[in-house]
Amino acid sequence: MIRVLLSCLILVWTQASGADETATRTARGNATLDVITGGKGSPAVAALADIAPDLGRWIVDFAYGDVVSRPGLDLRTRELATVAALTALGNAAPQLKSHIKGALNAGAKPQEVVEVVMQMAVYAGFPASLNGISAVREVFAERGIEHAP
Amino acid sequence: MIRVLLSCLILVWTQASGADETATRTARGNATLDVITGGKGSPAVAALADIAPDLGRWIVDFAYGDVVSRPGLDLRTRELATVAALTALGNAAPQLKSHIKGALNAGAKPQEVVEVVMQMAVYAGFPASLNGISAVREVFAERGIEHAP
Amino acid sequence: MIRVLLSCLILVWTQASGADETATRTARGNATLDVITGGKGSPAVAALADIAPDLGRWIVDFAYGDVVSRPGLDLRTRELATVAALTALGNAAPQLKSHIKGALNAGAKPQEVVEVVMQMAVYAGFPASLNGISAVREVFAERGIEHAP
Amino acid sequence: MIRVLLSCLILVWTQASGADETATRTARGNATLDVITGGKGSPAVAALADIAPDLGRWIVDFAYGDVVSRPGLDLRTRELATVAALTALGNAAPQLKSHIKGALNAGAKPQEVVEVVMQMAVYAGFPASLNGISAVREVFAERGIEHAP
Amino acid sequence: MIRVLLSCLILVWTQASGADETATRTARGNATLDVITGGKGSPAVAALADIAPDLGRWIVDFAYGDVVSRPGLDLRTRELATVAALTALGNAAPQLKSHIKGALNAGAKPQEVVEVVMQMAVYAGFPASLNGISAVREVFAERGIEHAP
Amino acid sequence: MIRVLLSCLILVWTQASGADETATRTARGNATLDVITGGKGSPAVAALADIAPDLGRWIVDFAYGDVVSRPGLDLRTRELATVAALTALGNAAPQLKSHIKGALNAGAKPQEVVEVVMQMAVYAGFPASLNGISAVREVFAERGIEHAP
To answer: How many CB pairs under 8 A join E and F?
Structure first.
């Protein structure tokens, strides 16, 4: 909890300051990652250390530090937008599960996540939506979320 | 303006009542479509009348009446999620433009729409994001939106 | 066998009648589902009961009741078209397996299913076709289909 | 008409004979192409002559000669399966139009083509289906098909 | 010509040095962009200035400065890999044309570009390959490339 | 080693000769397959024998014999282009692994394969690239490749 609050402070601070660009991007990216992962860090980034560590750095510095940390849209909506896109594309189940957790950690209610995935039946077809619901079910089970639809 | 308010009333009413299912679904779908299109109706639905009118009915009754009208998620977030998905899929430019307008009509700020489309560079690649920005630019030009990023 | 015949009767009846729309759509959808699943019901729909029951209702009422039950095209061709689309999209293996079974239940010969999946090598590439054949092989093994190509 | 009948004869003959493989594949491919294009030949193949003539040869010899000419599935169903796949993929509008014409030339009724495209709303989402209907509308207009849905 | 050589020098220099990260990334990105665009700069980046300038900055600093400039693979192969991916995805025609030009500017022969696009018929289907050839034809015409296949 | 050299000889010979087309295509396809699989043959082709043997023949005769064997582009670049396309499409993990091995067998360095997959983060998004790296990791582990990035 304290770690998440600290992350938010870093986030505000790094968006204001401009000094030491790379350190700032990394700090900002890690702060956003901390909110999204609930302070657990990204297993995907860690797993890249042996084979493609720069890809892991880009995830922290670019994806989270430059893009997802931007102030123009709240993190809950950003994560729900990512859940929508990954459900529609349908080719990245592990990342979809991560962002379902991320949406919940960023403040989305369980039913809101379910609604986004259900809505994709309209825009990407029922099979994509059904596979998205399977990912939601796994996340809810891992977290012990009691979900009465 | 009055028409949009009226639409919202119908929306609340149809979500509560259960009588005369088909009429209810159609009324609810049209009410949501009115909010999303700013009271102009859907040109896509009208264009289907000559060749596949039932597809148009499904859009009103199912897509808007059953799915997008659901109470569990606000319409602004729903439309931003759809913008995210269509930008990521990258194969439906006319529908993407409609939902960019829909997001604005449902209360999203111009910059919020831009943020969702930019974010897709991370999740679906830069070409998908660039083509999404082209759609945003066309909508902003049509609407005379002065957008200082 | 009798159950499937009964389903066909319901299907004809519900396409003719217009009374009590929702009950009609559900009955018609379940009748078509019965033909496609050989009277076993859809495990996908059942699995949605805990987390997204309305998505399951849409599958019965909309996907099967409104769309797949339409009289303008025979069910065998509809299921083969779905096998083609899911093989080409390549992102929904469980649903592809269901519709391979559905095509067989709707009267397609095993070789016809194989032909559709092979043909996708031309329109969606060999990897999509190869993964489609893997799904066909699993279904044929489950059903004990002796297939001499 | 005579040309199409002649094509069918060649098709039957080349499926039976095994002599002179390449000439046989080309003849068989052109015969099937003749049925699908109504004897007009493929503009796509002709257009490849200047830049990638072997790609054009593969279309005739492999795609039409080896695959689409196979006896295990009738040509009407093959073309409807291709219409389904290209509507679902949504990234090949000119080819979709060609195969809508091909389905009609192979004996599918206009309404059957419309049904396949409408059905894709379920399996690939409404935007893909709507863009498929736009392709159908263009083909029907070119051919002067009076279509009362 | 001199500008391209200068770009190569900057590229080598920025890969060696570590000082002033952001300026380095931008310089390196612009140097690589100069090689790829033949010193003309990216019209896509310029077009973003009014609506999403940070997306343009990410293209220069991240896409070209961090990724495409990396020393582990030659630029000609990188551009051919991008041509392959965009032909296969089939949803980004303007970007495909840019990278066909980029491959030629990075030293690929016209026939090598044609080969990559033809090969995609195997991995993503003939429609994707045919649309890729259309993009190649437009680029060759713009550049007055006499191509005898 | 001798088998691979022999394969190369067959490849050169079959590209020069024109006699007995089908035998030539098969020999040429098998020769290229031998280079790509390191003389092990394709398990995918073998697996098709029971259910769709002609699809296996097309892979040898058409995909490898007609397309991948063409002289206009070296095999290493062809395999890297295929790795790029399959990483971007993201719907064919087994085939991606085969072509990662194929790229290595055709002479690409481990780091070159990693670079192509990392680069796809730019053109198809980070999730596609991350899943590509998972495939690379499995191949490197199977082969005991010590890879110090």
So the answer is: 95
Cα–Cα separations (whole angstroms), residue A72 to B85, B119, B148, E130: 19, 11, 13, 40
pLDDT digits (tens, 9 = 90+) for D28-74: 999 999 999 999 888 889 889 999 999 999 999 999 999 999 999 99
Asked whether the beta carbons of residue F66 and residue D62 sit closer than 8 angstroms, the reply is yes
Q: What domains are there in chain B, each with its CATH number?
A: 2-68 (no CATH), 75-143 (1.20.1290.10)
Which whole number is the average pLDDT over B47-54?
Answer: 94
On whether any CB of chain E is under 8 Å from the CB of B119, the answer is no
Q: How far is C59 from chain E (nearest CA, A)?
A: 29
What is the ipTM, given to two decimal places? 0.89
Q: Is B93 on the interface with A (CB under 8 A)?
A: no
Question: Residues E85, F123: contact at Cβ < 8 Å?
Answer: yes
Name the more confident of B50 and B20.
Answer: B50
- HEC secondary structure over F60-123: HHHHHHHHHCCCCCCHHHHHHHHHHHHHHHCCCHHHHHHHHHHHHHCCCCHHHHHHHHHHHHHH
Closest of E16, E11, E117 to residue E65, by C-alpha: E11
Output the six-digit token pair for E98: 């840019």
Residue E121 DSSP code: H
Asked if E53's CB is within 8 angstroms of B114's CB, the reply is: no
